[in-house]
């Protein structure tokens, strides 16, 4: 992606968002590292401790449609500032938890703050600046934020050894106030509110209300089907590979390759981001998922088929992450993008919370082939919907009139 002229201001915003998104997603991933310490200290089983992450996703999803008006009225900058202020007491509450009630209450607060600061808010911020040309900027941001766990898992491990899990939570609360909040206040531009304007003289262009609702339903369904697979597999991949016959050490070794491949796929999408839109990326990447599933089904657990699965699935799922974020740019202007993205966040976050327990339940009861078969059906369904969305792309003439 090349920046020139007015686009250069995006570089500063990208830097701010990259730092704060890595911190945001890295800090909320702390159960992966301190889960057993929390379990022992609070006398909770490990499943309940990890359910805190499910609460996070559910609360983020429930708040997303409600925050759509706030993003439109006040702009992403002000909403993100409020979210950073709220995140700090959430981590403090987590640090003083003595049992399930305070523990889950803390995740409710953190999830509320996350809805105002993580992913959706960042995309809306970039869209406020760049409009539909924000696709490459979003791809660049995702390229960096994909490394959040690589940065914060060892950070959390170090802090938990040095100051305990409670001290780690307090440290992350301080980070929200001392790092993220100043970045939002001083690093993000003040944008005018995205006020809807209706011009009586403007010609009626684009799809009818019913058609637009149908398009939105297709977008949500395609994103939800793919998210069910990718979010679920991110949680159960090691168990899946073990069910295919790999010992634990080899399953971890193969699984660790996935994140690197996904980041590489995001990098390839970023390099070519100006040449195709989110639907095209989704179509190309979406083909890879059922191919990868079928390869693992027929491969009988051989090393070459598992390696092929990791490679194809990693490239496909990595590019689909960018596609999920950028498909709405094809159909919505600045004002509508904020509303659509916020509404999409509800089913997306609910899917993120639900898919891991569903897939792990199927895996333990019915085996790996049942999980792979369901994933194949979901991926093929999403691919067919993306083909339909491709036929609904707004015409160039309609886009010019809408943006005039």
- Sheet-strand content, in percent, reads under 5%
Specify the helix fraction band. Answer: over 70%
Q: What global shape is seen?
A: globular
Q: What is the H/E string?
A: HHHHHHHHHHHHHHH
User: DSSP helix count?
Assistant: 15
Largest sheet: none
Q: Top keywords for this entry?
A:
disordered N terminus; 15 helices; mainly alpha; 404 residues
Structure description:
The chain has helices at residues 9-28, 31-42, 46-74, 76-95, 100-117, 120-130, 135-145, 148-187, 209-243, 248-271, 278-298, 303-331, 334-366, 368-391, 396-403. The protein is an all-alpha fold and 404 residues long. It contains 15 helices and no strands. Helices cover 83% and strands 0% of the residues.
Quick overview of this protein structure:
The protein has helices at residues 9-28, 31-42, 46-74, 76-95, 100-117, 120-130, 135-145, 148-187, 209-243, 248-271, 278-298, 303-331, 334-366, 368-391, 396-403. It is mainly alpha-helical.
Write the layout of secondary structure elements.
Elements: H1 9-28, H2 31-42, H3 46-74, H4 76-95, H5 100-117, H6 120-130, H7 135-145, H8 148-187, H9 209-243, H10 248-271, H11 278-298, H12 303-331, H13 334-366, H14 368-391, H15 396-403
Helix pairs in contact: 1-6, 1-7, 1-8, 2-3, 2-8, 3-4, 3-5, 3-13, 4-5, 4-6, 4-8, 6-13, 7-10, 7-12, 9-10, 9-12, 9-13, 9-14, 10-12, 11-12, 11-14, 13-14
